[in-house]
Amino acid sequence: MDTSRVNKVNDYVWQIPKSGDMKVPAFIFADRVLLSEMDDKVFVQLSNVASLPGIIKAAMAMPDAHWGYGFPIGGVAAFDPDSGGVISVGGVGYDISCGVRCHRLGLKKSKILPKLETLIEELFRYIPAGVGSTGKIKLTVSRLDDILKHGAHWAVEKGYGFPEELEYIEDGGRIRDADPAKVSTMAKERQKKQIGTLGSGNHYLEIQYVQEIFDRDAARAFSIEEDDVVISIHCGSRALGHQIGTDYLQILGAASRKYNIPIKERELVCAPIKSPEGMDYFMAVGCGINCALANRQVLGHLTRTVVQRIIPEATCELIYDVSHNTCKVEKHKVSGKMHKLFVHRKGATRAFGPGHKELPKLYRQVGQPLFVGGTMGTSSFILVGTQKGEDLAWSSACHGAGRSMSRRAALKRWKGKGVINALKHRGIILKAASLRGAAEEAPEAYKDVERVVEATHGSGLARKVARLKPLAVIKG
Questions:
Q1: Which terminus of the chain, N or C, has fewer Cβ atoms within 10 Å?
Q2: Among the options 66, 103, 399, 457, which is catalytic?
Q3: 137 in a domain, yes or no?
């Protein structure tokens, strides 16, 4: 990015001043290196988002931001429904409610290592992964509607996990603003066999250990210590979310014309929140969120089943489950007063600070955990939300390392077998559903996650709690 077009606020905050059609300024949270490495398209897309009706305060980009559809990936924006605010497909993305859940095993690394290869082989055999993967759960459209309404609660009722886990899932495991009637039959048909599947792309299941603790109080609240083993699961709403995005790209495109909303990029199409089209999309997104929460709940239980079969003394307790592709109604302070806003987070994670009433009681004093995925060959991190993050970016933080290279470019540079062998030399086992997927997800195709997390911590968006290192990875 041409850094001459932005103003430095401090070492981790940069402003794009309001100009042209922009209704508010834009802010990028990054250090100078991350900023300079961002595509100029991030600047353009943030400026376009800042031009949408009813946007409040600013358009924002997290430290892992890169070019996306409509919004940059890593983009955050809040809209006021009472001021003509809009809802946009580009602000949510196609993988609705893609997110991460993390389980602690109650065991140290030394206990896992002798059985690591057997464990990852069994997980790879038991958990469907890859493009178009299907699971053992087969549903009719009407039964799928139950999932779209009840989310992780459906999974628990069907025996996938335990009721006490629901407190440790964002929104208690269910969005109530969800109406299956707003989701197309095609979307439901595509999803009928995909509950309990990992999918492809950057989705993963990763066995990790806690290498370093930065915040003892938060780590104690999350019940983790150095050398503890955890399993992180990263996936979303699969085909259903993608089809919802595809369907509503057309519907909101027509709505943009109907309501005379000027659109500068096709994927930025939107509708007023209070319009029929806007509310239909919002309730469809709620269905996508519930689908993803149910999917991860099933995957978490399948993982626990395998882990305890191989290592009976493992507990596999859920630390938390949080999404990073959503639009949600939240109350935030604007000009000293609480307002109901529609917060878009596209490749950005909700990160409530200490004291928030939606947090589990055990976490309320320290804040909400969030999980920042690195790459197959580098670190991941556990962070915790802050009060400052509420003030800076509607309680939002980064979601991962963020790509620095397209999948097509990665395929030209690396081969799948080479990536697998390189990781093996680092002591990391990779089980990939395809060699193409392994090449696309080569660690070098991503930004430096250490720098991304340091910028997130330094800016005050969230605080570092622990660094996780990979032991074994399943990729779709």
A1: N
A2: 399
A3: yes
Taking CA atoms, 38 is separated from 312, 378, 405, 444, 462, in Å, by 46, 20, 11, 16, 21
CATH of the domain at 288: 3.90.1860.10
- Euclidean distance between CA atoms 420 and 60, whole angstroms: 36
Residue 410 falls within a domain, yes or no?
Answer: no
Q: Which of 44, 3, 37 is nearest to 20 (CA)?
A: 44
pLDDT in tens, 291-323: 999 999 999 999 999 999 999 999 999 999 999
Domain count for the chain, please give it.
1
Q: Are 47 and 71 in contact (CB under 8 A)?
A: no
Residue (of 24, 68, 91) closest to 342 by Cα position: 91
Q: What is the percent of the chain where pLDDT is above 90? A: 90
Residue 145: inside a domain, yes or no? Answer: yes
This prediction's pTM:
0.96
Q: Is 356 among the catalytic positions?
A: no
Confirm whether 467 is domain-assigned.
yes
- pLDDT tens digits along 216-270: 999 999 999 999 999 999 999 999 999 999 999 999 999 999 999 999 888 899 9
